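Feature request, filed as a ticket because there's no other form

It would be nice if the structure record came with a short human-readable summary line next to the tokens. Right now we just get the raw output. Example of a typical job, pasted below so the devs can see what we mean:
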Amino acid sequence: MAVRASGLVKRFEDVVAVDGIDLAIHRGECVGLLGPNGAGKTTTMEVLEGLTQPDRGEVEVLGHRWGVGRDRDVRTRIGVQLQETQLAERLNVEETIRLFRSFYPAGREVGEVMELLGLTAKRNGRVHKLSGGQRQRLALACALVGEPEVLFLDEPTTGLDPQARLRIWEVVEAFRAGGGAVLLTTHSMEEAARLCDRVAIIDHGRLIAEGTPTALVDSLNAEQIVEFRAHAHAHAHAAPPALDEAAVAALPGVSALSRRDGAVVLRVARIAEALPALLAELERQGVALESLTTKQPTLEDVFVSLTGRGLRDE
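Raw output as currently delivered:
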């Protein structure tokens, strides 16, 4: 076991940021924490990294409990990329990675890590002149240069262009394939689906669902998600009638109905049956479609089905 947490609780004044979370991460496994801003993901990460003391619960990293004598040794065996890493602005890329390499008794060659993260051409570039994406890659290089056994990544690809994001995904996949354990937070459903062996969905500090991305999506029992916007035709001297959502939810092939950003979202088990029935029902109600889309269900849909709101909602 690389990381184990049991009954974690962390409060800040009158806010319970982490509320009884249990989590385990094995070697060679990537686990993702998903949830909206303020759900408790970063606080959970900080507790597991030994940066924040929990109010209750136990944490073990590589068989060691934080605060029981061997913290310094364990810190040389983990790599951490914070959501916002403050680096020395006047150092260049190579100097920054070399500085972090000096913190560890063993590790990788500085040039190798720069090449791995696509930073070789920027080796003499000062930190304060780097783009946001280059800073993200530099922060990951600093986390990897000590050749850690466990990697903590807090939204590692935020703000990156598609090419840089793909490079980081490949680095994480190689690390995991080499037996390393990864815990990451992300808002990207594509990232979670590609990188994570398991996903833990957090809301209001609580773990509300956990499983493989495929199993969580399959739990919706939906082959398609249908999302539409519509407005009712107004009759003379009368307000337009509201959409009869109960009638729509009762249509053949529809397994659930919810609202998202003003649109109606249907979980559909049999799209070939449900779609014609939906169009006929909207016509019967005198409702005109503004837009209609269909898509495969995602982890975002899992979260909405559990909480009634999106992963990016504040």
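Something like this underneath would help us a lot:
The domain at 3-213 is CATH 3.40.50.300 (Rossmann fold).
The chain has eleven helices and 14 strands.
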